[in-house]
Specification:
140 residues, alpha+beta, Thiol Ester Dehydrase, Chain A, 6-stranded antiparallel beta sheet, 3 helices
Length: 140
Amino acid sequence: MSIDLATITAGDVVAERTVELSRDSLVRYAGASGDFNPIHYRDDVATSVGLPGVLAHGMLTMGLAVQPVVDWIGDPAKVLDYQVRFTRPVLVDAQSGATLHISAKAGKVDADAGTARIDLTVTFADQTVLGKAQVVVSLR
């Protein structure tokens, strides 16, 4: 799949998604990643170390955030660079879970290189949880 560079300009929203997380999601991710830190599934442990409650894994949040971009470009190999700063935790309530909102916007398009920098905005409870979240993708 090739994306027409002429149709993408800085500021264009290229993908959006809302993701629902549950405690079950965290347990499944722990099994897949091998990260069984109990702050990701036990309230008592999370609060005993000063956290407000059970937190989603940072790498889970990071992976969920980039997926709409991967779906948009059609090939994970077209992700050339991806980086984020973790700015706020995602608290996952035992009953209501957590809702992440992801918006991917073209930040810079380099027609000569055939690349675009996609800026991600990822929010939970109306607060940004990833700072400087940027994905560089090949558009060829």
